[in-house]
Design goal:
The chain has helices at 13-20, 104-116; strands at 2-4, 9-10, 35-43, 51-59, 65-72, 83-89, 93-99, 123-127, 130-134, 138-142, 155-159, 163-168, 172-176, 193-198, 205-210. It is mainly beta and 211 residues long. The relative contact order is 0.17. This is Maltokinase N-terminal cap domain-containing protein.
Length: 211
């Protein structure tokens, strides 16, 4: 379960992304339009130290972009190139926000979701000492349910692009930056694809694959 805090964020996640996204080679759209959140899903960090959230966002009526983020209480070593920015969280203090593709905690969580079908973390707020569950904004599933998950160590290399490739010690993950658009969909062996839907999208879109 992912514990969420009712907190103020300065700047907000969308404010950080509004200035960062247009600088990416795989970005498409009108950066003068308003950036809106379409949907999101989270994974758990078993150690409970790193927040892992994937946002689906778009500028105006432009294409949806998939942006996995990790939130850390201290900088991730040797990852300055992947730092989106910092924000002040009214409960947790300063948070370093990274494009999660270079974060080994995200790579391990994504590999687990793709290979086992573990799905997304259940989100909840603590209200009067009891968990109040927040309904998910989208559904994700995998056709790799039941597979063994190798230990994912360091992220050795990231090839950023429409289909971002994350190379680790044991697995190679491919992430669709613009789910549903021709040329940006990841491809991989049968039984190793993460797909999902949200309101207004009836046919599952491929988000990530693993080999």
């Amino acid at each position: 379960m992912a514990l969420l805090h009712r907190a103020d964020l300065r700047p907000t996640k969308l404010e950080l992304l509004a200035s960062w996204l247009p600088s990416r080679s795989w970005y498409q759209g009108d950066s003068a339009a308003e950036l809106v959140r379409v949907a999101a899903y989270r994974f758990d960090d078993p150690a409970g130290e790193v927040g892992i959230e994937t946002l689906l966002v778009r500028f105006g009526t432009g294409p949806v972009h998939q942006v996995p983020l990790t939130y850390r209480g201290a900088p991730l070593p040797a990852a300055d190139a992947w730092l989106i920015g910092t924000l002040e969280h009214s409960v947790l203090g300063t948070r370093w926000v990274y494009d999660a593709c270079a974060d080994p905690v995200y790579a391990a969580a994504l590999a687990d979701a793709v290979l086992t079908g573990s799905g997304q973390a259940e989100e909840y707020f603590e209200v009067d000492g009891r968990p109040e569950v927040r309904a998910p904004s989208m559904d994700i599933t995998s056709d790799g349910a039941g597979a063994d998950v190798p230990a994912v160590g360091a992220v050795r290399r990231v090839v950023d692009g429409d289909r971002t490739v994350i190379v680790t010690d044991t697995v190679e993950l491919t992430l669709a930056r613009r789910p549903g658009l021709t040329g940006s969909q990841p491809t991989g062996p049968a039984g190793a694809t993460l797909t999902g839907t949200w309101d207004g999208v009836s046919a599952p879109l491929a988000y990530a694959t693993l080999r």
